[in-house]
Design a protein that fits this description.
four-stranded antiparallel beta sheet; 3 domains; 11% strand; Isoleucyl-tRNA Synthetase, Domain 1; globular; 595 residues; single chain; five-stranded parallel beta sheet; alpha/beta; Rossmann fold; Gyrase A, domain 2
């Protein structure tokens, strides 16, 4: 519709003022809700051509369009803005075009399309995934699909933080208190078992620290000088030195965790194209740091530690290698970035990491630029807010977290109970019920998290998320299932699938409202990719589902006696289902055929 109006305005300007206009002079946008109209032309740039006021310019163009373009039904002028209403008859033609589009709303990536690397998940191998990881994974996976649908070549990556002092804490606690237990002997998922020892380490460390504080140390001094912490640091040094026994234990415990992670990722429905490991990338990072040190870009202090001075960039000095030569997080991120660019030559690299790491990624980009890597200008930190529960924040060290596996199980159980109470499971086999409830539970979880602006902190409320009414995943899923039921019944009764040409139908206002939303889908996908906002897609899906349900409530589809109108409404229903399914797919949410 925008292209149609753009073409009409060009013709109007050419005929009225005898000149052509450049693309930048044609500023067209959706009409704001408080004004009548579908599309708005900003007339201020065209006043240079008309040599008149923007208001008069808009009026002259409006009159010409109404008289010469059949697609224009009405217009009004508000100061220098021309609000154009598209004629009702045009919306049926637009629906025909949408219906005929093979992959409506999605752009195909080509060989020259931008290469976008998206990193998400980034778990530590000292604990299982929790609610915070769920938001990270859902945001990253959805972004990968949105960016791909907008025509980019996308690589989904994960960096596993499988080394460092936090890993050594779990290893040490298992050595001291584990008595050789394994996932097989305990019946626990490996990531849960290792996480238990991380919590145990912190508990024992707290006990030792309290004794040292009682002896006169500050809490910070006590924590650093506690015997357990010293042993953990010694274990890290042994690991980096390649001590065989230490490396063997590290491999064994990490393998337990990876098996556990794989189960959780599968249950969440997220995937990766490539997984990197910090135990590999930190080596590249150390080499980069030492090379930059030789070139004079970095500073070695008296204690042997290596730093970069970013005070000229209004930051501070940042540690890159500890005094004992061990690497820090920044070191491995430097190595990972260089390896990824070597692997993919990306145009843009998006890090899906919480907003508590804003400073870290400022330093990362600046450090790489200082080292001469101009591609670091393409690094982008997708900074998202924290997710909490109604009762407050989670604390990994104390074991006070919402485990991802437990939450997935709880959401499925809640969906099962609510579906049973509403009588939505009657007539299904046990396997069908289980699968549908899993789809509903996960759909509720994913939608509740993704509908929120990523930049904002959020509180996840399981009970609110799974409501079958309102702005929830199950409401949208139920709308899709309703559409599939209508289309199936139409096929069974011989009414068809709405595949006859209905371009000469004049839609009513409710039908037009649905078509307008369908018309917005392609531009919304592009906008969501540019803004990196799955929330735009999520709330669009709700708006489309709500608008369709209002139409469905007010007008009969299969019971419509006028065959032409019935065919039109079937086409509208089928296309709406396709777009809702696509929107949910972009969010990583399954669309059940039955509910």
């Amino acid at each position: 519709m925008e292209n149609l109006l753009r073409k009409g305005v060009r013709e109007a300007v050419r005929e009225i003022w005898g000149t052509d206009v450049t693309d930048d002079m044609l500023q067209i946008q959706k009409t704001r809700k408080e004004f009548a109209g579908d599309l708005t032309l900003v007339a201020f740039p065209l006043a240079r051509v008309s040599h008149s006021s923007p208001e008069k310019t808009a009026g002259e163009i409006g009159r010409w369009l109404a008289a010469n373009i059949s697609a224009v039904g009405d217009y009004n002028v508000i100061k220098g803005f021309l609000n154009v209403t598209i004629a009702s008859s045009q919306w049926a033609k637009r629906l025909e075009n949408i219906s005929a589009a093979e992959n409506y709303g999605f752009l195909e990536a080509e060989s020259g399309s931008a290469m976008v690397v998206i990193e998400y998940s980034s778990p530590n191998t000292n604990k299982p995934l929790h609610l915070g990881h769920i938001r990270n994974n859902l945001l990253g996976f959805s972004l990968s699909r949105i960016c791909s649908a907008a025509g980019n070549r996308v690589i989904r990556t994960n960096i596993v933080n499988d080394r460092g002092i936090h890993i050594c804490k779990s290893m040490l606690a298992w050595q001291m208190f584990g008595n050789g237990e394994t996932p097989d002997t305990t019946g626990k998922k490996g990531d849960h078992l290792v996480g238990d020892y991380y919590v145990l380490f912190e508990q024992k460390l707290r006990e030792q620290s309290e004794q040292l504080v009682a002896g006169g140390m500050t809490p910070e001094e006590a924590r650093e000088n506690a015997p357990l912490m010293k042993k953990a640091r010694e274990l890290l040094l042994k690991w980096e030195a390649g001590d065989p026994d230490t490396v063997e234990l590290w491999k064994r415990m990490n393998s337990w965790v990876y098996e556990g992670f794989d189960v959780t990722y599968k249950d969440l429905g997220v995937e990766f194209d490539r997984i990197y490991y910090e135990s590999d990338t930190y080596k590249t990072g150390k080499e980069l740091v030492l090379q930059s040190l030789e070139k004079g870009d970095l500073v070695r202090r008296d204690d042997g530690s290596v730093w970069i001075d970013l005070t000229a960039d209004n930051l501070d000095q940042k540690l890159l290698l500890r005094s004992d030569g061990t690497a820090v997080y920044m070191t491995q991120d430097l190595g990972t970035a260089v390896l990824r660019f070597s692997d993919y030559h990306f145009d843009r690299h998006i890090y899906v990491v919480g907003n508590e790491q804003n400073y870290h990624f400022q330093v990362l980009a600046l450090t790489l630029l200082r080292m001469g890597y101009r591609w670091a200008e393409g690094l982008h930190h997708f900074s998202y807010g924290m997710v909490e529960l109604p009762e407050g924040k989670m604390k990994s060290r104390e074991g006070k977290v919402v485990d991802a596996d437990d939450l997935i199980e709880e959401m499925t159980a809640t969906a099962t109970e609510m579906s049973r109470e509403l009588g939505k499971l009657e007539g299904y086999s046990e396997s069908e019920r289980m699968n549908i409830c899993r789809q509903i539970g996960l759909g509720a979880l994913k939608y509740f998290i993704l509908k929120v602006d990523p930049k904002k902190n959020m509180t996840f409320n399981p009970a609110e998320s799974i409501d079958f009414n309102g702005n929830t995943g199950p409401f949208i899923q139920y709308t899709y299932a309703r559409i599939r039921s209508v289309m199936k019944k139409a096929e069974e009764t011989g009414a068809g699938q709405g595949d006859r040409d209905c371009s000469d139908v004049t839609p009513n206002l409710k039908e037009i409202s649905v078509i307008k939303l369908l018309n917005d889908f392609p531009s919304l996908v592009v906008e969501a990719a540019e803004e990196l906002s799955p929330a735009l897609i999520a709330n669009y899906c709700y708006e489309l589902a709500r608008e369709f349900n209002q139409f469905y409530h007010d007008y009969s589809i299969l019971g419509e006696e006028d065959k032409k109108i019935r065919d039109f409404r079937l086409k509208l229903t089928g296309v709406t289902g396709r777009v809702i399914e696509k929107g949910l797919w972009l969010l990583g949410i399954e669309a059940p055929e039955r509910m």
